[in-house]
Design brief:
The protein has 360 residues and is of the alpha+beta class. It contains eleven helices and 13 strands. A hairpin with a 2-residue loop joins β2 and β3.
Length: 360
């Protein structure tokens, strides 16, 4: 990587770098899973109407409320601080990430509302407009409008969406329901958090910046088609808790064990190289502290860089699908038709307690 110049922010010389205004970026801003679990454990029991098909019980991607026999509303919200310095790219990444939760439920987005918090005395109006334009561009690509929103003056830049979608209840996919014998398919390569850490340190190569933008702005549109496949038993998207964290959630919700093939994991080019040079987010360690007790790595089997990849927070990461073994080719074909060339079978579900282990 020494022969490639580090990626720089796009814009006029002297412009404020968005990442310098925030303490973290992208889905790495999430509250650590262990802390979040303790917070939610103290919450009072909520009213649960029969029409609420999905609530907070399994830490799923979105809430789902049935309105008739063939339609249910999918509702979610997602927002974060900048993961990149280019305002248009930041807006695109944040919007893509927010819409992903609708696709992960097997749904199709209907419209969105913008969530905007900006340090208006620090950032130029033109920069803020570019962030909003980025989000609008992604929503236009998804075929939906941004129908409103809410803005505040904040000390750190924040952008995201409330995403509203629609799903037929019979096509609804949850992070619960994976069966022993199911194959696990991951739709996007891992390593976004490693790339973002390298960017903050000025070490990210231009070609790798381009790869990061490409993957984080690719809408998880296969989710809607996967929702219509009966042999797809569970689905989620891999975001701030990393591959292991979101897979642990599937295991807990499904009361089963996941067996991963480390060698089959799709990884962004040079992702492990960046990890080996210290380009790792703080969220990676927090993630491991939150769910590491449910993961069996094997003594001395993984070096620090490889372990960091497994817990690396993914901003706008890929869909993680549990499907019957006979449906694997169909699932991969759906991913391929939507341009997800790196989608891969990474493991399988087996009987056992809720944990993740690695194949011998």
């Amino acid at each position: 990587m020494n022969d490639v110049k580090a990626a720089v922010s796009v814009g006029q010389a002297g412009a404020v770098k968005l990442t310098s205004l925030s303490h973290g970026g992208g889905c790495g801003c999430k509250i650590a899973p262990g802390v979040l679990e303790r917070i939610l454990a103290k919450s009072a029991p909520a009213l649960i109407p029969s029409q609420l098909l999905v609530g907070i019980e399994t830490s799923d991607d979105a809430a789902v409320y049935q309105i008739n026999d063939h339609q249910a509303i999918v509702a979610t919200t997602d927002f974060f601080m900048p993961i990149v310095d280019d305002p248009f790219d930041f807006g695109r990444i944040a919007a893509t990430n927010a819409l992903s939760d609708v696709y992960a439920m097997g749904g199709t987005p209907l419209f969105a509302l913008a969530i905007v918090g900006m340090p208006v005395n620090t950032l130029p109006m033109a920069t803020i407009r570019r962030i909003l334009k980025g989000g609008e561009a992604v929503c236009a690509k998804a075929g939906i409008p941004i129908a409103g929103g809410h803005t505040i003056d904040s000390t750190e830049p924040i952008y995201g969406l409330v995403a509203i979608g629609l799903v037929d209840p019979k096509n609804l996919k949850r992070n619960a329901g994976a069966h022993p014998g199911d194959k696990l398919v991951l739709g996007k390569p891992l390593g976004v958090g490693l790339y973002s850490a390298a960017l903050r340190k000025g070490k990210l190569a231009r070609r790798d910046y381009a790869a990061m933008i490409e993957t984080t702005t690719q809408l998880n549109t296969p989710g809607a088609a996967l929702g219509r496949v009966a042999a797809v038993h569970a689905m989620t998207d891999v975001t701030g808790f990393g591959l292991l964290g979101h897979l642990v959630e599937i295991c807990k919700a499904s009361n089963a064990t996941a067996v991963l093939d480390y060698g089959a994991l799709p990884v962004l080019p040079r992702g492990l190289d960046y990890a080996a040079t210290g380009c790792v987010t703080g969220a990676s360690a927090r993630n491991w502290a939150g769910y590491g007790k449910r993961v069996v790595l094997g003594k001395g089997r993984f070096n620090d860089a490889e372990k960091a990849l497994l817990t690396d927070p993914q901003t706008s990461g890929g869909l993680l699908v549990a499907c019957a073994s006979e449906a694997v080719n169909d699932v991969l074909a759906i991913f391929g038709a939507e341009g997800f060339a790196q989608a891969a079978v990474i493991g399988e579900m087996v009987e056992g307690k809720a944990r993740v282990i690695f194949a011998p």
